[in-house]
Amino acid sequence: MIIQDLLTPFFLTKKKSLVFITIPIGLNTTSAFIIMTKENQRPEFFQWVTNNLKIASIFTILAGTDVEILSVLQSNLAGFEYFQAPFSDSAKSKIFWVAFLNLFTEDIPQLVIQVLINLICFIDYDIFNLLKKIFFFFIFFFFFFFFFFFF
User: Fold this and answer.
1) By CB neighbour count within 10 A (0-12 exposed, 13-18 middle, 19+ buried), where does 79 fall?
2) Tens of pLDDT along 74-112?
3) In angstroms, rounded to a whole number, what is the distance separating the alpha carbons of residues 69 and 141?
4) pTM of the prediction?
């Protein structure tokens, strides 16, 4: 018990670890609403929103958790009109940079917290499961950048 108290870093305490959830959600929520309101000023996008109001509203609210959800609206998924939003290059760039910032404010700190909790709280934890988590995180990380830069 004393070892756990000594090894518990700053961000593993209950109240302070909420920073790594509340700040990214606040960042995503404000970014999603700013991007959508600025895009609504463009006539072409405004016309798409009026035609697909329910889908646009749902995805704007969902983008509060992860702003990359807005990218689904322009994905042309299955050829549906719902997923053919005419985002400007500026909006696409903002979505990318907010998602990139989320990598450092949300994803990496949460990975560090999970690894440290596994190391501190579960001393007899199987090292192969821990390495598997780290390995799959890096696979996801590189797949994300490969997909984002080449497609």
Assistant:
1) exposed
2) 888 888 888 889 999 999 999 999 999 988 888 888 888
3) 17
4) 0.68
